[in-house]
Amino acid sequence: MEKKQTDTIVIGAGIVGLAVAWALLRKGLSVVLFERSRAASGASIRNFGMVWPIGQPGGKLLNRALRSRELWIEAAHQAGFWINQNGSLHLAYHEFEWQVLNEFYDQSISKGYNCRLVTPVEAKQLSPYIKTSGLLGGLFSSTECVVYAREAVRLLPEWLRHRYQIEFRFNTPVLHVSGNEVLTANETWKAQKIFVCSGVDFETLYPEIFRNQPVTKCKLQMMRAVKKQASAQGPSLCAGLTLRHYASFSSCPSVARLNQYYDEQSPVYREYGIHVLVSQNQSGEFIIGDSHQYGLHHDPFNDEVINQHILNYLSTFFETADLQLVERWNGYYAKMENGASELVIQPEPNIYIINGLGGAGMTLSFGLAEELVNNL
Ligand SMILES: Cc1cc2nc3c(=O)[nH]c(=O)nc-3n(C[C@H](O)[C@H](O)[C@H](O)COP(=O)(O)OP(=O)(O)OC[C@H]3O[C@@H](n4cnc5c(N)ncnc54)[C@H](O)[C@@H]3O)c2cc1C
C-alpha cells in the first residue's frame, strides 16, 4: 500500500480536532484531518454553543477562555456562522445566592472578569424571559457569547478547506496510530506530528493509555424549545444551581450555604448533577439543559424524570408558560476525575492525545490548541 505524506494529521472533527487543525494551519503546516463519521456528531454539535469564560477560574484558564472567545469571533466572521456576543446573566432568588454573586463581584476586577451586579429591574431589561417574582438581583457578565453549535461545527470545516490547505477525510475511521503513521481501512499516511482528538471514543486508539488515566465519561440531557413571542436575544441565563457547578465561584464563602440549602431541599439536583443553563440560537429557539451522570458506561436512553427536574428548576427563573419543547437529546463528553482542565499526553514522541475538556470544550479548545501548537 502506498504511503501518503503530510506535515500533520488530526484525528476527530469535533471542536478539539478543528481547533488543533486551525492552529496548525495558521503556522503554515499542511494538515489532513480524519473523521469517522460523515460529519462530526458528538459532543461538539450537542452543546449549548456557549463560550463561557465566567465559568473558568481566574488566571491561566480565564485567559485561555478569553483568547478562545477572540478566535471564535474571528472564525465566525470569516466562516460566516452566527455568533452572538450577548453576555451572561446569573440570577439570585435566595439571600445566600445574592451573597455569592456579591462575593464573586468583589473579587472580579482583581481576577480579570468583566461583570457588574444588576437590580431586578435591570435584569428584566436585559432579558424579558426571566421571572422577577422573588428576584433579588443578578450578575451580568459581558464576555460570554453563543454560537449555534450544529451550524458552527458544520461550517468550520468548509471554511478551513476554502481558506487553507487542509484535506478532510470524513467517513474515515482511523484504525491504528503508531510512530509517524496513521492507518485507515484503505490508506496509510505518514506525518511529522499526529494529534488524536477522539472525544469519548477512548476504546479505538490508545485504549491502554486511557485505562491508566483519571478520565471518565459524562452523559448529559438537553432540550430545544420555542416560545410564541421570542424575538429578543438577551444574555444566556442561569441561576443558583450554576453557582456551585463552575470552579470560578468555588472561592466564594457563601457557596457552602448554597450547597447545604439545595442538598437539604432538593437532593435530586446533586443526584443527577442538574444545573440549568439557557442559550438562544439565531432563530430565537432556546437550548436548555442539563444533567451530569458520570461513568465509563452509559445506557443510551433519556430519563424523563431528569428532564422534568430540569424543567422544574427552569421554571423558578424563566417564564415557561408558553414554552414548547421541540427536541430532546443527550450528549457525552470526556472529563478528568482529578480536577485537571484537560488531558494532553504524548504516548509516543510525535503523537499527542488531546482530550478530557469536560463541559468547557467550546470555551477552551481554541485557546488550548493555540498554546499547544505554539509550544511544539
Ligand atoms: C450536552 C453538552 C453541552 C455542552 N455545553 C457546552 C457549552 O455550552 N460550552 C462549552 O464550552 N462546552 C460545552 N460542552 C462540552 C463540549 O461540547 C465538549 O468539551 C467538546 O465538544 C468535546 O470536543 P471533542 O472534539 O473532544 O469531542 P467530540 O465532539 O466528541 O469529537 C470527537 C470526534 O472524533 C471522532 N473520532 C473518534 N475516534 C475516531 C477515529 N478512530 N477515527 C476518526 N474519527 C474519530 C468522532 O467521530 C468525533 O466526531 C457540552 C457538552 C455536551 C455533551
What's the topology here?
Elements (H helix, E strand, L loop, with lengths): L2 E9 L3 H12 L4 E4 L8 H4 L3 E2 L8 H20 L3 E2 L3 E5 L2 H17 L3 E4 L1 H7 L10 E5 L3 E3 L1 H15 L2 E4 L6 E3 L2 E3 L4 E9 L10 H5 L3 E12 L9 E3 L16 H11 L1 H5 L5 E4 L5 E4 L3 E2 L9 H11 L9 E13 L6 E6 L2 E5 L5 H14 L2
Parallel strand pairs: 1-2, 1-12, 2-9, 5-14, 12-20
Antiparallel strand pairs: 3-8, 4-8, 5-7, 6-7, 10-11, 11-12, 13-16, 13-17, 13-18, 14-15, 15-16, 19-20
The structure holds flavin-adenine dinucleotide.
Summary, kept brief:
By secondary structure, the chain is α+β, with helices and mostly antiparallel strands. It has helices at residues 15-26, 43-46, 60-79, 95-111, 120-126, 149-163, 207-211, 255-265, 267-271, 304-314, 361-374, and strands at residues 3-11, 31-34, 50-51, 83-84, 88-92, 115-118, 137-141, 145-147, 166-169, 176-178, 181-183, 188-196, 215-226, 236-238, 277-280, 286-289, 293-294, 324-336, 343-348, 351-355.
Give structural notes.
It is a single chain. This protein has 376 residues and is of the alpha+beta class. The protein is 32% helix and 27% strand. It contains eleven helices and 20 strands. It has helices at residues 15-26, 43-46, 60-79, 95-111, 120-126, 149-163, 207-211, 255-265, 267-271, 304-314, 361-374, and strands at 3-11, 31-34, 50-51, 83-84, 88-92, 115-118, 137-141, 145-147, 166-169, 176-178, 181-183, 188-196, 215-226, 236-238, 277-280, 286-289, 293-294, 324-336, 343-348, 351-355. Strand 15 and strand 16 (286-289) form a beta hairpin. The longest helix is centred in the first third of the chain and has 20 residues, at 60-79. Bound molecules: flavin-adenine dinucleotide. Residues 11-17, 34-37, 40, 42-44, 46-50, 52, 173-174, 197-201, 204-205, 220, 222, 289-290, 331-333, 355, 357-363 line the site of flavin-adenine dinucleotide (FAD). Flavin-adenine dinucleotide is lined by residues 11-17, 34-37, 40, 42-44, 46-50, 52, 173-174, 197-201, 204-205, 220, 222, 289-290, 331-333, 355, 357-363.
